[in-house]
Design goal:
With 159 residues, the chain is α+β, with helices and mostly antiparallel strands. The chain has two domains: 1-43, no CATH class; 47-158, Nuclear Transport Factor 2, Chain: A (Roll), CATH 3.10.450. It contains two helices and six strands. It has helices at 47-60, 87-109; strands at 2-10, 16-24, 120-132, 135-144, 149-153, 157-158. Strands 3, 4, 5 and 6 form a four-stranded antiparallel sheet that branches. The chain has a two-stranded antiparallel sheet with strand order 1-2. Strand 4 (135-144) and strand 5 (149-153) form a beta hairpin. Helix 1 crosses helix 2 (87-109). The longest helix has 23 residues, at 87-109. The protein is globular and about 40 Å long.
Length: 159
């Protein structure tokens, strides 16, 4: 027996968002159909915003966690609980992770037809901020081939 609970919440833009949660209590039915809806309509993400999302996904994926491609990802997530307190060491790890993400995205995009505003030109460390002695926030400047520039902020990292 499946039970579906519907909850209506407000998004950051004050739109109503429907959230459906499926709970299955027994598996006596061989066939199940479940439909999910996330609000009135979906929005397409394109251009520099799409590239920023791809960049963050690549940066925040720990290397070796994708079973289909163990080389995908960066060393960036390894900063979490790493006890690195030296700013120079942390900057080296972050810069290396940015370089790894750029290399992988460039390789992924090499044989694809993409608009220039979704194709990565470069990414560089823009701002590096120790919020406290053991909390770090990183801002990365991502540049598209068309010249669009996006400042990407990572989640706060607990060192």
């Amino acid at each position: 027996m499946a039970k579906i609970t519907r909850t209506v919440t407000k998004s950051l833009s004050n739109d109503s968002v429907d959230t459906y949660i499926l709970g299955i209590s027994d598996f006596t039915n061989d066939i199940s159909n479940v439909e999910f809806s996330f609000g009135k309509s979906s929005q397409k993400v394109s251009g520099a915003a799409k590239l920023a999302g791809i960049f963050l996904k690549k940066l925040l994926t720990a290397r070796g966690t994708n079973p289909l491609d163990l080389e995908e990802g960066t060393e960036f997530p390894n900063l979490i609980s790493s006890n690195i307190i030296d700013e120079e060491e942390a900057i080296l790890v972050v810069q290396s992770a940015i370089d790894q993400a750029v290399e992988q995205i460039t390789a992924d995009q090499a044989d694809k037809e993409l608009p220039d505003d979704e194709r990565l030109s470069s990414a560089k460390l823009d701002e590096f901020d120790f919020v406290t002695a053991d909390r770090l926030v990183v801002f990365i400047d991502v540049l598209t081939v068309s010249g669009a520039r996006v400042k990407v902020k990572t989640p706060r990292i607990e060192l």
